[in-house]
Amino acid sequence: METYNRTSDDFILIGLFSPSRIGLFLFMFIVLIFLMALFGNLSMILLIFLDTHLHTPMYFLLSQLSFIDLNYISTIVPKMASNFLFGNKSISFIGCGIQSFFFLTLAVAEALLLTSMAYDRYVAICFPLHYPIRISKRVCVLMITGSWIMGAINSCAHTTYAFHIPYCRSRAINHFFCDVPAMLTLACIDTWVYEYTVFVSTTLFLVLPFIVIACSYGRVLFAVYHMNSAEGKKKAYSTCSTHLTVVTFYYAPFVYTYLHPRSFRSPTEDKALAVFYTILTPMLNPLIYSLRNKEVMEALRRVTQRLCSVKM
Q1: Reduced to 3 states, what is the DSSP secondary structure of residue 24?
Q2: Which residues lie closer than 8 Å to 146 by C-beta, 6 or more apart?
Q3: In the predicted model, what is the mean pLDDT of residues 246-273?
Q4: Residue 119 falls inside a structural domain
Q5: What total of structural domains would you count in the chain?
Q6: pLDDT tier at 176, thresholds 50, 70, 90
Q7: Which SUPFAM superfamilies would you find in this protein's record (predicted)?
């Protein structure tokens, strides 16, 4: 690996792949995924906005998930692509702080939003008569606002600490974005106290929400099993399996990375796992929710027909 020494306050991002033929192929693949994520999430937001049949709490939350994913991947990939194309791997101290802040805010906001979506399905299936009261528009707005606020508070705490500790001579971050745990390997002081706070933060904002989601869907599956309607069972299973697929893709690599002791992880492993929750998940979410959701496909057909009739 190349050795980078400190010549300014800028950091150096080692990147995801080296400038080679294989690296160029992987770069083009990542850019394709990025474009698919932009198109998919923008399409989902517009579809939910244009089709009145999707103006329900579930799809309001889904539009927010698409909005978060849109910003999430845009926080990481453009800078990574720029570094690869122009060969300039540096990122300013302030730029690194901004990227780290938005990454952490969006990561926690998405984790909490997925929990809200699980609660929405739990109430819809287990307490259908109470659904309009428990999941009103006001409740949806509060859940979304709470997700963003908690994400921002958590991000402020971690970013403030990471950018107020002394760093040694090398400023080379062995990652493709300003990930705080990767930055701490460059610190000149012992960071065990902070690593403990990362453990606590991960438990609060990732592990506990995942447990809540698992319990919610356990209760949902139990209720579905006792349903008399075969059509109702099929729809409930489809919705739950879709959401659980999204949750697994997002939470599993995140929790493994942030709870696994640093001494047992390698930078290559961290970067490979980070690809799942920063690049692949924002691209897969709109695909999973559209291809496996009959209501979304029907809404797409209605909007397409409406647009075609307007043109004619």
Answers
A1: helix
A2: 112
A3: 84
A4: yes
A5: 1
A6: very high
A7: Family A G protein-coupled receptor-like
